[in-house]
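User: Structure please.
Assistant: Input sequence and predicted structure:
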Amino acid sequence: MRSKWIAAVVSLAAVGMLGLGLSQASSVSSTPVPVALDGDGPLHEIMEGVNKQNNTLRKGVRTAVAYKKSYEEVLAASEEMVKLAKKAQEVKEYAEKLNKVKEWNDLSQKFTESAEQLLTIVKDKQKTQKEANDQWKAMGKTCTDCHNVFRIDEEDPFGR
C-alpha cells in the first residue's frame, strides 16, 4: 500500500518538474541569433563551403595522428579553402549595402592570405601538425573578425 503512494508522489513530482522545465524553456524565445546577410545568395553558398572545409580541417589538424591519417583530405580542404576565400573576395554587394567596402576588402584579403599560408604549410611535408593547427586557428580568427563586422542579428525562427 505504501509503495503505491510513493509511486504516485514521485510521478506527480516528475510531471510537475517537467511542466516547470517546459515553461522556463519557452520564456527564452527573444534571443537574437546571428545570420548571414544574404540568406541563400552567393555569399551564403561560399560560406557553406567554407564551413564544410573547415570541419574537415578541424578534424585533420587537431592531433598528429589525425594529421598523418587524413593528410590528403587536409590538403584538399586547404586547396578548396583558398579557392573559396578568393571567390568570397569578389562578392562585394553586401559590403556596398553597408558602406563597408574597405573593411570587406581588408578582412577578405586577410582570410585569403591566411588560407594560402595554411596551404603552404600543409604542402610542405617538413612542417608539423602543430604548425598546421596553429595556422588553422589563425585562419579561424580572420573568420571571426569578419563575422563581427558583417553579420546581422535576426530573430531565431525556432524561438531559441
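The radius of gyration is 23 Å.
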